[in-house]
Amino acid sequence: MELSANGQITDSLPCLADQNGGGDDLGVLGEVHNIVLPPIPCSFPWRNHPDYKALTEMSDAWVLAHFTNMPGADGRPSSFAADHMIKSAFHMQATLPYADGISERMPPIIKMMDWYFMIDNILDDPSEMGADPERADKVVDSVLTVFRDTYIHPSPSPNPLVRILTDTAAEWWAEMCQGMPPKQKARLSKAFCDYLEANRTQVPYRNSRQLPDLETYFQVREDSIGWWPCAVLIEHSQGFELDDEALSHPLMIELQKNTVQHIFMTNDITSFKKEYMQGDFCNIVSLLYFRKLYDPKRDPNGPAPTLQGAVSEAIEMIREKDENCVRLMEQIRNCKELISKPGVEQYLEGLGLWISGTVYWHLVSGRYGICATTNLHEVPPDMLASQHLNIDVNKQAARTLPNRVMMAAT
């Protein structure tokens, strides 16, 4: 017996390794290869930044200058080569959500997004630091100095990986903060710190091969997805600042919450196969599936849960968030005291672009094996079509299944 994250006692649960059957076409592993991703609910139109081509060239040059021959966690080549970063077009996760951004403010935002995916890979991938709390702590503690204004140039870390991640963060952070209002910078700094601490929290789950309960997962994932700094940058990219009253309004808080949940669940369902094939289970699909599979109240004579069923359940959860965002935006636009405030209408447009831009990028990027276009730079994806997850990473890691799920009290 042990305590769950919310203090509830849970039983240790059996490992499912035997259910994989030892063959690639059997059990959970076989299901993974056959998953079909239904259309992701999204009610918001997408746009790309008018300077997209120039920003693409800038991004590619910066990645090649800083991340070529990137060292891995153990001194070996990193799983994140510069050419892979370029092919994955991480900068589009900035040019689409910030389609209305002031051109002069876009370069540091592009650099930040490229960097985001680098550190995300390092802290997510169990073969890097995603299952090693001690090494992950060193990365987090070093990068935190940038956002707490205690950074020393260059980073004194003896680890080349930590030095590169810290020094590149310091570069775009200094550029980004030029002329930023103090209160906005403080919000941005706190959001980055919360992101790093949330990723630190996720590492022990991977290390122990246990999944949190659903409520705890949502709480952690809302920060670990890294969207809250990006929310502040909706304002900065367009040169406005929401006042405290607008930011603290219940309708705005609820809208932000539904937006970030839509975004992280979109990421979860599209990245599920990639993460599963790396032995990573901190994902809404894994959590929905294994909590049903391990449920001691499940009828053994009833139909067994499936991964495809978990994907469908997650899609319906995203649909609910999408509908909530539409409803909340309408309520805000009908609230005269709120919509009349400077920047609120621009902010609502920015939230919609973040939702649609996230769906768009996940479908066209090669990172998750979907590639729903013949040319990600010229041909938009069919966002209403079902997709296959065509990725094959580490079959050996895929045989390592979570050994317990923390069940919330009922």
TrEMBL record:
GO molecular function (one): terpene synthase activity
Keywords recorded for this protein, A-Z: Lyase, Magnesium, Metal-binding
Pfam family membership, one: Terpene_syn_C_2
Segments passing through the bilayer: none
Cofactor needs: Mg(2+)
EC numbers, comma separated: 4.2.3.-
Family: Belongs to the terpene synthase family.
Protein name, per record: Terpene synthase
Source organism of this protein record: Ceratopteris richardii
Lineage: Eukaryota, Viridiplantae, Streptophyta, Embryophyta, Tracheophyta
